[in-house]
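The following record pairs a protein chain with its ligand, adenosine monophosphate.
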Amino acid sequence: MKLLVIGSGGREHALAWKLNQSPRVHKVFVAPGNAGIALEDGLENLPISSIPELIEFAKNESIMFTVVGPEAPLAAGIVNAFRSANLRIFGPTQQATQLEASKEYSKDFMKRYGIPTAAYASFSDPTEAHEYLNKKGAPIVIKADGLAAGKGVEVAMDMSSAHAAIDAMLVSNSMGAAGSRILIEEFLQGEEVSFIVMADGHHLVPFATSQDHKRLKDGDQGPNTGGMGAYSPASIVTSELSTRIINETIKPVIRGMAQDGHSYTGFLYAGLMISQNEEINVLEYNCRMGDPETQPIMLRLKSDLSMLVEHAIEGKLEEVEIEWDHRVALGVVMAAYGYPKKVRIGDIIYGLSELTSVEKLSNDFHVFHAGTKMGGGDNKDIITTGGRVLCVTALGENVNTAQHRAYEIADKIYFEGCQMRHDIGYLATNSLPQEK
Ligand code: AMP
Ligand code: GLY
């Protein structure tokens, strides 16, 4: 069978790579894809992105089903459009995607269904926002209401940065329309966990847990990013905590969405804050897999992903069992110069071709591509085209060995201006960042 994956990042590379491992799958097209995807046997980039063109392609090629990676096409209604054209697609509808696309909708939903989350108020008027902030004090969190690729959040430790964030979003329009409305939210302390499930409208299958590293620099310093590295499983999530997470934060979404008439099919990702006394709070919901969490999770998945997705599309997830590699997987993001602000593109990436032959022989690592394309003088170089460029992902018997292996491989890759954290997994290894 032939499949289609929508997107171009490391998450889509990992999903397509995993889907293609099924003996049932002959080809996975990725629209629009990236240079790493083009180099994989059985994967092919498809340089189109408009929904009508994708529908035409899926029909002409008899695509068995489509999997959507990022939030933007979901928010644009790709699932509604494919379903109207009688095509099978895995993802939530435009209405259900409001859970991610509008933070205000999401907070309101959580309130209505009794899901634990930080207290908040929302504003479009800067004067009212500043007044509210003066009453609440810092630390406090300022968030753009709309989609901002993981960059619309300012965790303000002092009043001046909180006031500045309000002005940036509401006065200077730094986030465009996404920031024309903001939320001011109570600051929560604890350890963050990514909890992802597959849902078919009624049933759910939990994926392995993971932990992202959102800040740009070692020791969780610097600005928020889309994610600089992740590992799976997240050691703090015991089976007891996992059950509580499902009952307190996942089942209410599946039930509530069905009750609201937007039955939820797709990946559902809860970004959680777990306090020291194991109180669970939802920071956000995403209507998709996480990036970079997908990369280590796919490296650990032993089950046939194409079967899982097919069961989910058919509403039969209660029939599946999911199997994981017992090892830890850890992914390190290599980001371009300037990320997450003004990104420089066009830097040549060295060391990849030497690694590809090793990669084919060993099954303990994979370099997933994101912002890459073929370029250079004779179009033979792989060059950077986006903020997050690669996610070097490796397996190990424990977090330390997975971490060691991932950095050993990352050290063989070079591009000018590369930014990389050196402490991915530090909450589990309990060690300070390695000196570089
Ligand atoms: P979000 O996009 O809402 O997940 O926020 C991005 C990041 O900002 C989260 O992963 C947290 O690290 C941080 N963050 C968001 N909301 C809060 C909060 N209420 N308290 C503390 N940190 C937060
Ligand atoms: N890694 C965070 C996200 O995908 O939103």
